Amino acid sequence: MSARVLAGPPAAEALLAQTAARAAKLAKPPHLTILRLGEDPASVSYVAGKDKKAKETGLSSSVEVMPDTTTQEALLSRIAELNADANVNGILVQLPLPSHIDEEKVLSALDPDKDVDGFHPVNVGRLWAGHPHLAPCTPVGVMSLLSHYGYSVAGKRAVIVGRSRIVGRPLAGLLLNASATVTVAHSRTPNLGAVTREADFLFVAVGKAHLITPDMVGAGAVVIDVGINRLEREGKKARLLGDVHPDVAEVARALTPVPGGVGPMTIAQLMANTVSAAEGQAQLRE
Ligand SMILES: Nc1nc(=O)c2c([nH]1)NC[C@@H]1CN(c3ccc(C(=O)N[C@@H](CCC(=O)O)C(=O)O)cc3)C=[N+]21
């Protein structure tokens, strides 16, 4: 048996088409401002991808690059200006930030209604209270990938490996809101395989290449691989490896590939969140 491949691009295209239609109904195209500090190559490439996709989706976007020596004070004051600018609907501060900057402070400084990453404590609270407005792009993208391929998690056992702010934690909230029975495993979980084998839906977001091997997956599980591990190669493009070993395809019912699985959904969901932010702001003005 070989698992069904849950490809990201077709699901992302469907979400982008819906998002473009919503954007077109607004008085003007929603605007996303992306702040990037420094020249980390992965950040340069991700930010360029987001900017390009925004424009392809009929949104307006701009990228502001600040030096990696930017002080926290200067960054916070730019964020305050963007918060106050009625022409800016969404703000994204590309992570990771340079080590002299307090990430929590920066993320908490965003206007929660412009926080398209969904990392602000108000948005975390909305998610866990069961009524999300802007929730983190990767986990929301995972939920829409599942529904695109016809899967419902209601009443099913969902196991998440990883408890990050960006993926594990918010995914737990979303799955709970969708009526799954949710377990969050992490680096201190003893006998991880015994926990993951119980999953009907297994989500892995740890950042350890090929952590999940076939013996850790129950027959017929749906496996979502959120890991992106860069394997640098001499003189060649880095190879991307997931957190799930490809041989898991021999036991799982369905599996997302890396690359070409969850990654494209993250970007598509960022566009959807930008439109949601603009819609929310238009309602507040009514
Ligand atoms: N404030 C903030 N918000 C983010 O959402 C955010 C961030 N910072 N920092 C970095 C991570 C990473 N991230 C990805 C987005 C798309 C792909 C993606 O499209 N990946 C492709 C392959 C891309 C490639 O070839 O490198 C794929 O998996 O098929 C991956 C990773 C968003 N992030």
From TrEMBL:
<dbReference type="InterPro" id="IPR020631">
    <property type="entry name" value="THF_DH/CycHdrlase_NAD-bd_dom"/>
</dbReference>
<dbReference type="Pfam" id="PF00763">
    <property type="entry name" value="THF_DHG_CYH"/>
</dbReference>
<feature type="binding site">
    <location>
        <begin position="162"/>
        <end position="164"/>
    </location>
    <ligand>
        <name>NADP(+)</name>
    </ligand>
</feature>
<feature type="domain" description="Tetrahydrofolate dehydrogenase/cyclohydrolase catalytic">
    <location>
        <begin position="8"/>
        <end position="117"/>
    </location>
</feature>
<keyword id="KW-0511">Multifunctional enzyme</keyword>
<comment type="pathway">
    <text>One-carbon metabolism; tetrahydrofolate interconversion.</text>
</comment>
<comment type="subunit">
    <text>Homodimer.</text>
</comment>
<dbReference type="InterPro" id="IPR020867">
    <property type="entry name" value="THF_DH/CycHdrlase_CS"/>
</dbReference>
<feature type="domain" description="Tetrahydrofolate dehydrogenase/cyclohydrolase NAD(P)-binding">
    <location>
        <begin position="136"/>
        <end position="280"/>
    </location>
</feature>
<dbReference type="InterPro" id="IPR020630">
    <property type="entry name" value="THF_DH/CycHdrlase_cat_dom"/>
</dbReference>
<dbReference type="Pfam" id="PF02882">
    <property type="entry name" value="THF_DHG_CYH_C"/>
</dbReference>
<dbReference type="InterPro" id="IPR036291">
    <property type="entry name" value="NAD(P)-bd_dom_sf"/>
</dbReference>
<keyword id="KW-0560">Oxidoreductase</keyword>
<keyword id="KW-0486">Methionine biosynthesis</keyword>
<protein>
    <recommendedName>
        <fullName>Bifunctional protein FolD</fullName>
        <ecNumber>1.5.1.5</ecNumber>
        <ecNumber>3.5.4.9</ecNumber>
    </recommendedName>
</protein>
<feature type="binding site">
    <location>
        <position position="228"/>
    </location>
    <ligand>
        <name>NADP(+)</name>
    </ligand>
</feature>
<dbReference type="InterPro" id="IPR000672">
    <property type="entry name" value="THF_DH/CycHdrlase"/>
</dbReference>
<comment type="function">
    <text>Catalyzes the oxidation of 5,10-methylenetetrahydrofolate to 5,10-methenyltetrahydrofolate and then the hydrolysis of 5,10-methenyltetrahydrofolate to 10-formyltetrahydrofolate.</text>
</comment>
<dbReference type="InterPro" id="IPR046346">
    <property type="entry name" value="Aminoacid_DH-like_N_sf"/>
</dbReference>
<keyword id="KW-0028">Amino-acid biosynthesis</keyword>
<keyword id="KW-0521">NADP</keyword>
<comment type="similarity">
    <text>Belongs to the tetrahydrofolate dehydrogenase/cyclohydrolase family.</text>
</comment>
<keyword id="KW-0378">Hydrolase</keyword>
<keyword id="KW-0554">One-carbon metabolism</keyword>
<keyword id="KW-0368">Histidine biosynthesis</keyword>
<keyword id="KW-0658">Purine biosynthesis</keyword>
